[in-house]
Design brief:
- By secondary structure, the chain is an alpha/beta fold.
- It folds into two domains: 134 residues, no CATH class; 224 residues, Rossmann fold, CATH 3.40.50.
- Helix content is 30%, strand content 18%.
- It has 13 helices and 15 strands.
- The strands form three sheets. The chain has a seven-stranded mixed β-sheet with strand order 8-7-6-9-10-11-12, sandwiched between helices. A five-stranded mixed β-sheet has the order 1-4-3-5-2, covered by helices on one side. Strands 13-14-15 form a three-stranded antiparallel β-sheet.
- Helix 1 runs parallel beside helix 10.
- The longest helix is centred in the first third of the chain and has 17 residues.
Length: 444
């Protein structure tokens, strides 16, 4: 009996629910109206990359909206949205100039200007304020005086994905991974590609490709970051599971949304919550779980409770031999200090690696005896490379620090340095100033 049509109908319904759901705002009016009060939120949500001069890629699917030096109103409002195209925004980059070199000498309040530029952007299109979008800051450094700073570009770049209704897109992306699953049936192959084309959230087949490369992952559980920007990758995992149900070694799927809708100040290390676990069969249960957890919350602040989610899932599945973590490379791991609570290998599948590798996830893979994977490559021998002091990833050499961490040898190559604060547990407000090691107390 061919179950593919049933599976396809389930997926179509699932994606329709995702694409028509009300957008979840990333920046509330309270945050934008009180930028100095929420300065930490801005710094965590919009990681900063320093460049000498910002170089715009004309070939990219993006639009530049120009503000001008120390200004926040746009000079070319009519350029967004792109005319004649049905697009979904995927990334927003705010471009500043670092002049004077130290922020304390800036004449314009940095956080105020950032908030005003975002307000103008969201006034232009409210769809640009969404948890599914990646937000960044680029800081230009090649200027010695105000005149030179004024000559550089200041504004916002919005990247987008073009949606072509009822047409096959991503064909080259998924052709290789669907061919083997369609048993030579061109009809089924077209259905799979059409399914991927209709979904409204950005995806690049990373998860599908990695899972397809590793059929040896048996007796395992999958833990998925189910916050706004990860919905497309989650859809890939459901598709792969449905098409490989008979031989998949993934016994349970866990989704975590970093505490449901819990206030950020109430997110306690190891007790953040928002973790939901379900068996992978039948697939209809998984789809229902995806929608239920999405309605529970979309993440809130930028760092996520990955380690708590892994440890909680293992406590509920003690017989599992390993974990597959579908991780948001752009987000920090708020509870890395609990890493010793994980006693099984973690295979980290990184999503969104266009700006390099977040070392926190490399350390999760290494410290648990696991591995790390992107769409293009696998790193299965981390332990061996560390022993040889020869770990190089995408041209960046990593060294083992005295704190037993793997970090880029060149600190200027650490594009995710803002996550370093989460390697240790925060100090608690108590009489003793000594930092206490967090306890493992996860239960089924």
């Amino acid at each position: 009996m061919n179950l593919f049509p049933t599976t396809y109908i389930l997926f179509s319904s699932f994606l329709l629910l995702l694409s028509t759901a009300k957008a979840q705002e990333k920046f509330s009016s309270d945050i934008l109206g009180n930028p100095n009060k929420f300065s930490t939120f801005f710094e965590e949500t919009l990681p900063i990359t320093e460049v000498e001069i910002y170089q715009y890629n004309n070939a990219a699917q993006s639009i530049l909206l120009e503000n001008g030096y120390a200004k926040y109103q746009f000079e070319n409002n009519n350029d967004w949205p792109p005319q004649g195209l049905n697009v979904v925004p995927t990334e927003v980059t705010v471009i500043f100039t670092q002049y004077p070199k130290h922020k304390s000498f800036w004449l314009t309040d940095y956080h105020w200007l950032l908030a005003k530029r975002l307000e103008e952007l969201f006034s232009l299109d409210s769809a640009l304020n969404d948890t599914s979008i990646v937000y960044n800051i680029v800081m230009q450094t090649d200027c010695e005086n105000e005149f030179e700073a004024m000559q550089l570009f200041h504004g916002i770049e919005v990247k987008y994905q073009v949606i072509v209704e009822e047409e096959v897109i991503l064909e080259e992306e998924i052709e290789s991974v669907t061919k083997a699953k369609t048993s030579g049936s061109s009809t089924q192959s077209k259905k799979v590609k059409r399914f991927m084309a209709r979904q409204k959230y950005y995806t690049d087949s990373t998860v599908y490709t990695v899972l397809d490369r590793h059929p040896e992952w048996q007796n395992t559980v999958m833990v998925i970051d189910w916050t706004g920007s990860m919905y497309g990758y989650g859809a890939e995992s459901v598709l792969w599971q449905a098409m490989n149900e008979s031989k998949s070694g993934i016994e349970k799927i866990a989704l975590f949304n970093d505490g449901d809708k819990k206030k950020n100040r109430k997110k306690e290390l190891g007790r953040t919550g928002g973790i939901y676990i379900e068996k992978t069969t039948p697939i209809s249960k998984t789809i229902k779980l995806f929608n239920r957890v999405k309605n529970k919350g979309t993440g809130g602040d930028s760092p996520e409770n990955d380690v708590e989610a892994i440890a909680t899932t293992l406590a509920a599945s003690p017989q599992s031999e390993s974990v597959i973590l579908i991780a948001d490379n752009q987000s920090c791991v708020r509870d890395f200090a609990l890493i010793n609570c994980i006693d099984k290998p973690v295979h980290v599948v990184l999503c969104g690696t266009h700006k390099g590798i977040n070392a926190q996830y490399l350390n999760i893979a290494w410290r648990t005896g696991g591995s790390i994977h992107t769409k293009e490559w696998d790193l299965d021998n981390i332990q061996e490379l560390v022993a040889q002091q020869n770990i190089v990833i995408e041209g960046i050499r990593y060294i083992r620090t005295i704190d037993n961490l793997l970090l880029p040898e060149d600190r200027f190559a650490n594009r995710f340095g803002y996550c370093d604060r989460y390697y240790k547990a925060p100090r608690r407000k108590q009489k003793s100033k000594k930092r206490k090691e967090p306890q493992c107390y996860f239960t089924e």
